Each structure stands twice: as structure tokens, then as C-alpha cells.
Amino acid sequence: MATAVHPDGFLGYVQGVGDRPESSQPVTYGSTADFGVGAFLLAGTELARLAR
Questions:
Q1: What is residue 1's predicted lDDT score, i.e. its pLDDT?
Q2: Is the pLDDT of residue 10 over 90?
Q3: For 28, what's the count of Cα atoms within 13 Å in the CB-facing half-sphere?
């Protein structure tokens, strides 16, 4: 099974910043950006709240 979280903790498959979607294509396992990590952590927080 493929996963976006690397063994060293980096998050992959995150589209980079650009003026249009195709400016940062292709998105790969090695593609990362700061805002993607924040969104991932926010989603995890919301899932944890649902499990209470």
C-alpha cells in the first residue's frame, strides 16, 4: 500500500505553490510544502475529536 508519509516524517504528494495548478505538476511522492503538513495535522486533529 502506498502512503504519503515518508519513513523520516516528511509528507509527500503535496502540490506546490503556484499561480495555476499545472505550474507545480507532476505531484509525486517527493513533492512537499509547508501548508500541506498543516492541513494533514489539522485533519488528524479532527479525526481524533471524532473518536472521543
A1: 44
A2: no
A3: 3
